């Protein structure tokens, strides 16, 4: 496969490079904003799970605190925290940055490294969303908005009901740049209005295995169903389609490298070991045996 094949398969990946965004995710936030005018009147924002930083780029007109497990190349006007949003220490660091003031918008594009085990992936994703919600209750101003990635899996009703406790409006939105083949969508939670006398804390019971398993079976008025909205102009590119490399007959296609390669990718050590032939000898009898064992299981 040539290096341009990803450009062909993924139109938003290609456009991101052409327009200088660090990731194709930028288009998701832009299309959500087209629908919900999320950036109107925003001067302070929190970008959770921000690396490599395209959402922070989109929000670059405002003061941002950006958080991620991964190190992120600097961006002007963005305060960075490297940490895990499910850890209380990271949450406290974010809250410290906001002492005396609050954010108008909190966004979270957090996604776990997918394992392929749907239940596990959905569970971890839900934990990220709820950790983001807990942090949000500390820093978001009343009336502010919260946007987060959600996997529309089997626990989604429980998540919606938890979000509805804090926001008057919750919508599930699917931007056109998010593939239809992906269970990813975004909850757009508007008008933060926590229950009266609610005291933000980091130990609220989040989705865990002891919750009532019948929650998703509720019906009628007991079941929380939020509106679902496809957003992004219908004339926008379709993320599930393959496009020719030359989109415009007057402009020749030219391969462009990514705007900002990852600065400390988790696979860096493996690449180093492989390049320097430091990996266990793949030809040794023991590793051949190990290979067979892996195939068997
Ligand atoms: C889809 S990427 C975010 C892309 C980003 N919005 C952008 O536009 O560049 C998901 C990010 O979630 C981060 N992440 C996953 N689990 C996390 C956690 N527990 N705490 C902080 N970040 C996390 C990953 O490191 C990854 O960078």
Automatic annotation (TrEMBL):
The active site is at 149 (proton acceptor). It is an enzyme of class 2 (transferase). Signal peptide: none annotated. Methylates the 2'-O-ribose of nucleotides at positions 32 and 34 of the tRNA anticodon loop of substrate tRNAs. Interacts with WDR6; the interaction is direct, and required for 2'-O-methylation of position 34 in substrate tRNAs. Residues 21-192 form the Ribosomal RNA methyltransferase FtsJ domain. GO terms for cellular component: cytoplasm; nucleus. It is found in: Cytoplasm; Nucleus. S-adenosyl-L-methionine binds at residues 53, 55, 68, 84, 109. It comes from Electrophorus electricus. Coiled coil: none annotated. It holds the Pfam family FtsJ. GO terms for molecular function: tRNA (guanosine(34)-2'-O)-methyltransferase activity. It catalyses: cytidine(32)/guanosine(34) in tRNA + 2 S-adenosyl-L-methionine = 2'-O-methylcytidine(32)/2'-O-methylguanosine(34) in tRNA + 2 S-adenosyl-L-homocysteine + 2 H(+). Its main location: cytoplasm. Belongs to the class I-like SAM-binding methyltransferase superfamily. RNA methyltransferase RlmE family. TRM7 subfamily. It comes from the Eukaryota. This is Putative tRNA (cytidine(32)/guanosine(34)-2'-O)-methyltransferase. Keywords: Cytoplasm, Methyltransferase, S-adenosyl-L-methionine, Transferase, tRNA processing. Gene3D superfamilies: Vaccinia Virus protein VP39. SUPFAM superfamilies: S-adenosyl-L-methionine-dependent methyltransferases. Its EC number is 2.1.1.205. GO terms for biological process: cytoplasmic translation; tRNA nucleoside ribose methylation.
């Amino acid at each position: 496969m040539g290096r341009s094949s990803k450009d062909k398969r993924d139109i938003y990946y290609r456009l991101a490079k052409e327009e200088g965004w660090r990731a194709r995710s930028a288009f998701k936030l832009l299309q959500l904003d087209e629908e919900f005018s999320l950036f109107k009147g925003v001067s302070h924002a929190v970008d959770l799970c921000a690396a490599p930083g395209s959402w922070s780029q989109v929000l670059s007109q405002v003061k941002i605190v950006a958080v991620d497990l991964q190190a992120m190349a600097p961006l002007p006007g963005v305060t960075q925290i490297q940490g895990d949003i499910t850890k209380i220490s990271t949450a406290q660091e974010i809250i410290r940055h906001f002492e005396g003031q609050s954010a108008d918008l909190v966004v979270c594009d957090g996604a776990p490294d997918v394992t392929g085990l749907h239940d596990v992936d959905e569970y971890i994703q839900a934990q990220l969303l709820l950790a983001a919600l807990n942090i949000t209750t500390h820093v978001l101003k009343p009336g502010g908005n919260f946007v987060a990635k959600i996997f529309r899996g089997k626990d989604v009703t429980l998540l919606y009901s938890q979000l509805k406790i804090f926001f008057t409006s919750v919508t599930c939105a699917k931007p056109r740049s998010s593939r239809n083949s992906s269970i990813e969508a975004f909850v757009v939670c508007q008008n933060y209005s926590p229950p009266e006398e609610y005291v933000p804390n980091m130990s609220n019971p989040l989705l865990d295995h002891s919750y009532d398993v019948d929650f998703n079976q509720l019906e009628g008025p007991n079941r929380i169903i939020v509106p679902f909205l496809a957003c992004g102009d219908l004339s926008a590119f379709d993320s599930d389609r393959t496009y020719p490399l030359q989109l415009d007959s007057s402009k020749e296609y030219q391969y462009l490298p990514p705007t900002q390669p990852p600065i400390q990718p988790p696979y860096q050590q493996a690449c180093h070991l492989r390049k320097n032939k430091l990996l266990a000898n793949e030809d040794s009898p023991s590793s051949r045996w190990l290979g067979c064992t892996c195939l068997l299981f």
